[in-house]
């Protein structure tokens, strides 16, 4: 743990403590560049149809990256847990169709 805490700052790809500007490229999006990067999408991926509709709308509002939650850990085992791998496949497919890079947690 001590080693990790001492090394933490050195391992960061980006940090406010650094005077160097770091740019991260995700497909056609440059994060840290001159343009603001808007990432938007549903908290939970529920269906491919809803995801496509959401992607179309968020892109129309200026988003350049699509996000969606595929795994939704809950305290209750009876609550919606997300679509898991199926949701990830939907996200990848819709992102490709809409020409938008995707991100999930």
Low-confidence stretches: none
The main β sheet shows up as: 3 strands, parallel
Examine the secondary-structure arrangement and name the CATH architecture.
Answer: Alpha-Beta Barrel
* SSE series: HEEEHEHE
Q: Alpha-carbon distance between the termini?
A: 24 Å
Mean of residue pLDDT values: 88
- Secondary-structure-based class equals alpha/beta
CATH topology call: TIM Barrel
The total count of strands amounts to: 5
User: Approximately how much beta-strand content do the residues carry?
Assistant: 5-15%
Q: What is Rg?
A: 17 Å
Number of domains: 1
- The CATH class designation is Alpha Beta
What overall geometry do the principal axes of the alpha carbons give? globular
What secondary-structure arrangement, pairings included, does this model have?
Blueprint: H1 2-11, E1 24-26, E2 29-31, E3 39-40, H2 48-60, E4 65-67, H3 85-98, E5 102-103
Parallel strand pairs: 3-4, 4-5
Antiparallel strand pairs: 1-2
Explain this structure to me?
Helix 2 (48-60) packs across helix 3. This protein has 105 residues and is an alpha/beta fold. It has one domain: TIM Barrel. It is globular. The strands form 2 sheets. The protein has a 3-stranded parallel β-sheet with strand order 3-4-5. The chain is 35% helix and 12% strand. The longest helix has 14 residues, at 85-98.
Task: Record keyword descriptors for this entry.
alpha/beta; 5 strands; TIM Barrel; single chain; two-stranded antiparallel sheet; 3-stranded parallel beta sheet; 105 residues
Nutshell version of this structure?
The chain has 105 residues and is α/β, with parallel strands linked by helices.
């Amino acid at each position: 743990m001590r080693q990790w805490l001492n090394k933490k700052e050195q391992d960061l790809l980006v940090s406010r403590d650094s005077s160097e500007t770091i740019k991260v490229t995700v497909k056609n999006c440059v994060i840290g560049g001159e343009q603001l990067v808007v990432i938007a999408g549903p908290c939970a991926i529920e269906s491919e149809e809803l995801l496509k509709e959401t992607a179309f709308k968020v892109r129309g509002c200026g988003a350049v990256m699509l996000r969606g939650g595929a795994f939704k850990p809950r305290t209750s085992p009876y609550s919606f847990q997300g679509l898991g791998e199926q949701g990830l496949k939907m996200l990848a497919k819709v992102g490709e169709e809409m020409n938008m890079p995707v991100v999930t947690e």
